[in-house]
Amino acid sequence: FARLGTPIPVHDVVLADSYLPGYGGSRVELVDVSGTFLNNEVIGPFQGKNWTGKFQLREIGAFGRTTAVLNLPSQQYTLFMHKFRFTFVDYNGNTYPDFALGQYAGSDNNQYQIFSVEPDGIKELPISTYVVLGPPNAGYSPRFAKVGPNAFTSTMYNNTEAEWVKEMFTWSDGEFVESSRGATAIAAAPACSATQLSAANSGNQGGGTQIQANVRITDIGAYSCILAGVPTALNLLRGGSVLATRMLATPSNLVLHAQILSPHAANAAYLVVWWGNWCGARSEPVELRIVLPAGGGTLRTSFNNYGGHAFVPECLQPGAPSTLQVTAAYLSQR
User: Fold this and answer.
1) Is the pLDDT assigned to residue 280 strictly greater than 90?
2) Which pLDDT tens digit goes with each residue over 203-241?
3) pTM
4) What is the 3-state secondary structure (H, E, C) of the chain?
5) Alpha-carbon distance 17 to 188, whole Å?
6) CA separation for the pair 275, 316 (Å, rounded)
7) CA nearest to 118, candidates 28, 250, 215, 187
8) Which end of the chain is less congested by CB atoms within 10 angstroms, N or C?
């Protein structure tokens, strides 16, 4: 192994090796075909392990035979510092797996190209801006947030404005085109529907007069979406029967934020709901149904069956309605 600061020649070193989803055991490799390895002692962004040289993408079939090869441009791909896995996403909507592959481009951004694994081999997909920029901590092969069947967003640092902004790229006429930036890119994400969300009560708080449920929400769909607006209705059910409750107007100090949810980012946002003045049966758990605004559908989760206990609020006003109220929509978990 190389002593500190001493480069040694390397050949056919596999730096990334990931199975292709749905391809029966085929996989993609990133290989340092011919180069050097160095334990870089110089303090800075490249301190540590350095693999340099000529890099190649390879598709390996289920029986170990190389079925496709793509040599990476030496002026774009110069150095990798650790081994990693590819993240496969169909970014352009043609059903074939794509992946981003990038390099460090300064303290503010990495720069990425998008590659696709297709029946005729591995190919680089054209980008109108030549590269997609992303934060330095995103890694060599990040998952960009899909916002439609053939569009995705990335986050980059704009040095001119000294701020982080979102860019949206849409596949059009054989290339990814930067179709919007900043607030426009965020607004381009579709509204979340209940069919692509899951909800779970992460815990109850309060006691006596009111019980609070913290409903964690996750995007389980294929695309990013915007979760915004106060639910139009809240209902409690026991054994399939709707309980007699009334939804109160939101308080003047309501915490209201729109959140962009990325696919499979667990508990990306949460909704806070309070339940008060229950004078009915007190032992059984109940289900909370949340009707999303703008026809977004209905989410379902347990309201009070947390930790094996069925929490219910006290009956302070017999004969008065039991109430439900949203006090926060939607808080970020990131």
Assistant:
1) no
2) 777 666 788 889 999 999 877 788 888 999 999 998 888
3) 0.64
4) CCCCCCCEEEEEEEEEEEECCCCCCCEEEEEEEEEEEEEECCCCCCCEEEEEEEEEEEEECCCCCEEEEEECCCCCCCEECCCECCCEECCCCCCCCEEEEEEECCCCCEEEEEEEEECCEEEEECECCCCEEECHHHCCCCCCEEEECCEEEEEEEECCCCEEEEEEEEEECCEEEEEEECHHHHHCCCECCHHHEEEEEEEEEEECCEEEEEEEEEECCCCCEEECCCCCEEEEEECCEECCEEECCCCCCCEECCEEECCCCCCCEEEEEEEECCCCCCCCCCEEEEECCCCCCEEEEECCEECCEECCCCCCCCCCCEEEEEEEEEEECC
5) 34
6) 12
7) 28
8) N
At residue 96, the pLDDT reads 96
Tell me what the pLDDT averaged over the chain comes to. Answer: 88
CA gap 194, 24 in Å, rounded: 32
* pLDDT at res. 191: 85
Instruction: Assess whether pLDDT exceeds 60 at residue 2.
Output: no
Six-digit token string for 56:
């190649």
Contact at 8 Å (CB) between 309 and 285? no
Q: Which pLDDT does position 117 carry in this prediction?
A: 97
- Cα angle 184, 106, 79 (rounded to 5 degrees) comes to 120
Q: What is the pLDDT of residues 56-80, one digit of tens each?
A: 999 999 999 999 999 999 999 999 9
Q: Is the pLDDT of residue 308 over 60?
A: no
Pairing of strands 88-89, 110-118: unpaired
